Automatic annotation (TrEMBL):
The lineage of its organism: Eukaryota, Fungi, Dikarya, Ascomycota, Pezizomycotina. This is FAD-binding domain-containing protein. It holds the Pfam family FAD_binding_3. Keywords: FAD, Flavoprotein, Monooxygenase, Oxidoreductase. The keyword Flavoprotein applies. GO terms for molecular function: FAD binding; monooxygenase activity. It comes from Aureobasidium pullulans (Black yeast). Its cofactor is FAD. Residues 4-360 form the FAD-binding domain.
Length: 394
């Protein structure tokens, strides 16, 4: 059976690994980090239309572990699954888009769940330096001088993918968008979080009509008997005024800028953001996407997840598209392993489907980003239209 190399131990790479493991398909994951806890794993992600795909790919034991990664399992039991957009000046509702069943999961906990049982299949501290495609296999060269041979290489190594740089050497870089974003996870008391959770118990978005400032607010961790506070994510973005827009020299200046842009928000939101204590880490998030480029491919190297289609967060679909990628690859490569299908045909079939879906998804997310900072928002905007399985995947 063919051996598979997955480059990148993020959510998509680990999902693929678990799916291959369940089918006894040989694989190795190469990860640039020295261990699983080297970097922060972001905040939370919403699994919605891709949930049935996960449930088909992964063993029930693992699905049960993933379900426990939800930021608040009690809310999930009767969650209406709405994506709300509000007016940040008074918290009035602009739109309310149903999504159906969804799990809002802590990204770090999800990654730990997906790492379970893969210890022997992951090679840490492997910085990929180059890839060579030959007639019947591919060779991955790493910075430490080691090399790895496989029948196919799948790049799941994120928006700055080394594998995409190999496939698209002249047009691999993402394009920054003219917006700035700051994000923070803040501890709030029950009194502080109550008016926020009255808007939505899991997450909502908002726009300030006069300024174009945008807020993404999400519960990260609910209070427990051991922890008296809730952890809430605040991401604030705004149109970049010029190429000489303000630069943030340190965390103090980032926190000050975040609070400054919340001054016109409704009191419950403004007060929560103004209460963030000095020293709380604030991250600047680069908003960028990729002008999709079709690559010539002999069928030995491909891309999935953010490596294949970097997009903005404004539709909340990136992880779902990554899981769809994993699902399609898993189905095609099972046929190669067990039915003798041709590897080149399997990869090209996957890429044909993924490309059509990815081009649309990138453009929709970019338009959603634009619309998020320009009021009023049309009801046909991708910022507020339904999140559902793409038609070509149905």
């Amino acid at each position: 059976m063919p051996g598979i190399i997955i480059v990148g131990a993020g959510i998509v790479g680990l999902t693929l690994g678990q799916a291959f493991k369940s089918q006894k398909i040989p694989f190795t994951i190469l990860e640039r980090d020295a261990s699983a806890d080297v970097r922060e794993q972001g905040w939370a992600i919403t699994l919605h239309w891709a949930l049935p795909l996960l449930e088909e790919m992964l063993p029930q034991r693992l699905i049960a572990q993933i379900e426990k990664c939800q930021v608040n399992a009690e809310v999930a039991e009767d969650d209406p699954g709405d994506f709300k957009l509000i007016n940040l000046e008074d918290c009035s509702e602009i739109s309310n888009t149903p999504s159906g069943k969804r799990w809002r999961v802590n990204r770090g906990k999800l990654r730990l769940a997906l790492l379970d049982g893969l210890d022997d299949s992951i090679r840490w501290n492997q910085h990929v330096e180059g890839v060579e495609q030959l007639q019947d296999h591919a060779k991955v060269q790493c910075l430490d001088g080691s090399s790895h041979i496989a029948h196919v290489v799948i790049g799941t190594d994120g928006s700055k993918s080394a594998i995409r740089r190999f496939l698209c050497p002249e047009k691999h870089a993402v394009t920054p968008l003219p917006y700035r974003m700051l994000g923070v996870g803040s501890h709030l008391t029950e009194d502080q979080v109550a008016p926020i959770r009255s808007i939505d118990r899991l997450l909502f978005q908002g726009i300030e009509p006069k300024t174009g400032n945008f807020l993404y607010c999400s519960l990260l961790e609910a209070a427990t008997k051991e922890t008296a506070s809730h952890v809430v994510q605040f991401n604030v973005s705004w149109p970049q005024s010029s190429s000489k827009d303000e630069m943030f020299s340190d965390n103090t200046s980032r926190l000050a800028a975040l609070k400054l842009r919340a001054r016109g928000f409704a009191p419950c939101l403004r007060n929560a953001i103004e209460s963030i204590v000095e020293g709380t880490p604030v991250t600047e998030i680069g908003l960028a996407d990729w002008e999709f480029v079709h690559w010539d491919n002999p069928g030995r190297v491909t891309l999935a997840g953010d490596a294949a289609h970097p997009m903005t967060m404004f539709r909340g679909e990136a992880a779902n598209h990554g899981i769809q990628d994993a699902y399609d690859l898993w189905k095609n490569l099972k046929l190669v392993c067990y039915s003798g299908d041709n590897m080149r045909d399997a990869i090209q079939d996957y890429e044909s489907k993924m490309t059509k879906r990815a081009v649309d998804a990138i453009l929709l997310s970019r338009q959603a980003c634009e619309d998020a900072h320009h009021y009023p928002v049309d009801k046909s905007s991708p910022l507020v239209t339904a999140r559902r399985l793409p038609p070509q995947c149905a």
